[in-house]
Amino acid sequence: MGGSSREGGKVKPLKQPKKDKKDVDDEDRAHQEKLRADAKARKDMADALKKGKKK
């Protein structure tokens, strides 16, 4: 039963080569920048609220 071969088991798929970073066009870049700005604005507002409550 306990043979040394790996017959009959689930075969692992071969690793896929890493994909090159896709070229980001200006529209995508602008969208990412907007998302970062929105996240920063939300964080700043949350920090301001926390500071206001501590007074």
Automatic annotation (TrEMBL):
Pfam families: TMA7 (PF09072). InterPro entries: TMA7. Residues 20-55 have a biased composition (Basic and acidic residues). Residues 1-55 are annotated as: Disordered. This is Translation machinery associated TMA7. It comes from Xylona heveae (strain CBS 132557 / TC161).
